[in-house]
């Protein structure tokens, strides 16, 4: 009886751990790609441009924190659909587009104007980056589910990292609430 309770606890930590880890990794990878694409677009459209350390830090912070949050949400929701990984990822991307990104563009007209500075290409790149994130996330979750041990052999690692990435996800939730809520309420400019 005691062994069953321990297995259940490990399984419960394994599920959020995989979502948090995959989301964090996908978010950081997406931040790297986003920064590189920004540089390419800046060079292609204006022949120059520069990046600040603060701006780069914000992109990486948002990728890591929101990535962990979205990874957890994806793992406990759409991952359970009986559909191919690609379909689950695209559905999650569509959900994020409708629930988070479209309201974010409406709440931040400055950001929408910045995207349009390079014409429709800005929106295309923005959308492509978001779908690259969810497809990377979906693939990482699927891979981790297949490769991460289901026994108790790594339960201490799961517990520790679940706490760390869970705190990152809470930070991501706070960041989204601050950015979207603050902008919608007119508190944040």
Question: What is shown here, in short?
Answer:
Helix content is 84%, strand content 0%.
Number of continuous helical runs: 6
Number of domains: 1
CA-CA gap between termini: 56 Å
Structural class, from secondary structure content? mainly alpha
Broad shape: globular
Which ranges are low-confidence, i.e. pLDDT below 50, for 5 or more consecutive residues?
A: 7-11
- Order of H and E elements: HHHHHH
Task: Report the major sheet.
Answer: none
Write the layout of secondary structure elements.
Elements lengths: L1 H45 L6 H24 L8 H23 L1 H8 L3 H28 L7 H31 L4
Helix pairs in contact: 1-2, 1-5, 1-6, 2-5, 2-6, 3-5, 3-6, 4-5
Written overview of the protein:
Helices cover about 85% and strands about 0% of the residues. The chain contains 6 helices and no strands. It has one domain (about 1-185). Residues about 5-10 have low confidence and may be disordered. With about 190 residues, it is mostly helical.
Keyword list:
single chain, 189 residues, mainly alpha, 0% strand, globular
């Amino acid at each position: 009886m005691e062994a069953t309770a321990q297995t259940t606890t490990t399984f419960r930590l394994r599920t959020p751990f995989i979502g948090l880890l995959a989301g964090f990794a996908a978010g950081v990878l997406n931040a790297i790609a986003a920064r590189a694409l920004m540089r390419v677009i800046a060079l292609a459209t204006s022949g120059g441009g520069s990046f600040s350390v603060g701006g780069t830090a914000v992109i990486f912070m948002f990728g890591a924190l929101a990535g962990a949050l979205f990874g957890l949400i994806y793992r406990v929701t759409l991952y359970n659909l009986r559909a191919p990984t690609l379909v689950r990822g695209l559905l999650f991307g569509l959900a994020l587009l409708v629930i988070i990104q479209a309201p974010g563009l409406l709440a931040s007209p400055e950001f929408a104007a910045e995207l349009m500075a390079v014409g429709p290409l800005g929106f295309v790149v923005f959308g492509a980056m978001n779908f690259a994130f969810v497809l990377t996330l979906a693939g990482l979750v699927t891979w981790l589910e297949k490769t991460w041990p289901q026994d108790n052999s790594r339960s201490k690692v799961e517990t520790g990292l679940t706490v760390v990435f869970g705190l990152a996800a809470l930070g991501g939730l706070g960041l989204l609430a601050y950015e979207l809520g603050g902008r919608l309420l007119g508190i944040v400019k």
